[in-house]
Amino acid sequence: MFEDRIDAGTQLAKKLLKFKNENVVVIAVPRGGLPIGALVAKALKAPLDVALTKKIGHPYHKEFAIGAASLEDIILTDAMGITQGYIEEEVARIRKKLRQRHDQYYRNNTPQKLTDKTVIIVDDGIATGNTLLATVELVSKQKPKKIIVAIPVAPNSGIHKFETNTNVNEIICLLVPQNFRAVGQFYRVFEQVSDQEAIAILEEFGG
Predict the structure, then answer these.
(1) Which pLDDT tens digit goes with each residue over 135-191?
(2) What's the pLDDT tens digit per position in 32-85?
(3) Burial, 102: exposed, middle or buried (Cβ in 10 Å; 0-12, 13-18, 19+)?
(4) pTM for this one?
(5) Angle at CA 18, nearest 5°, toward 12 and 11?
(6) What CATH architecture is 5-53+110-205?
């Protein structure tokens, strides 16, 4: 059980100190991953950036990711039987939101280049892992030296997806509970991170 994202980020940062001497970029999944990513980036003296990706939800169960989209790419992980029309509509809607987020987040910053870097992808936890898996695929297209996935909490099934993914060099997870229902159940305080907070965190790190 974590007190809040600060507690989780502090603990996670300690586990990642072994990467301190590498050419690291920390990529946080907005918005919940940003406070954690900030603590990791500070500990490693590394730049912080965001994964501008968003899950494509199943038409009948929006929480279930059938893939994810970025501004340039789309990855489908579980789209059997889903119409092309639905996917195109969702991707257009997602990209509109991502463009807004891009304009907000990069008002005073520029995106980090990931080629030949050790990229540590951080979130506040994973449930199915599908969204983060799609983020890994999109990051891998930039040809980083290696990809590390670092999260405070995940179920065994979620961990397994990353252990068997050839793009992931290592997965670091602090808690792998047997009885997993949702990420929030393992935080005493699990409030939503606002866009304003996310922007403030990114601006603290500068370009």
Answers:
(1) 898 899 899 999 999 999 999 988 998 999 999 999 999 999 999 989 999 999 999
(2) 999 999 999 999 999 999 988 888 999 998 878 888 888 888 888 778 889 999
(3) middle
(4) 0.89
(5) 15
(6) 3-Layer(aba) Sandwich (3.40)
Specify whether the backbone of 143 is left (phi greater than 0), alpha (psi in -120 to 50) or beta: left
Q: Provide the residue ranges of all domains of the chain, joining segments of one domain with +.
A: 5-53+110-205
Torsion of CA 132, 88, 76, 114, to 10 degrees: -50
Q: How many other CB atoms are found less than 10 A from the CB of residue 83?
A: 10
Within 10 Å of residue 190's Cβ, how many Cβ atoms? Answer: 17
Tally the C-alpha atoms within 13 A of residue 45's C-alpha that lie toward its C-beta: 5
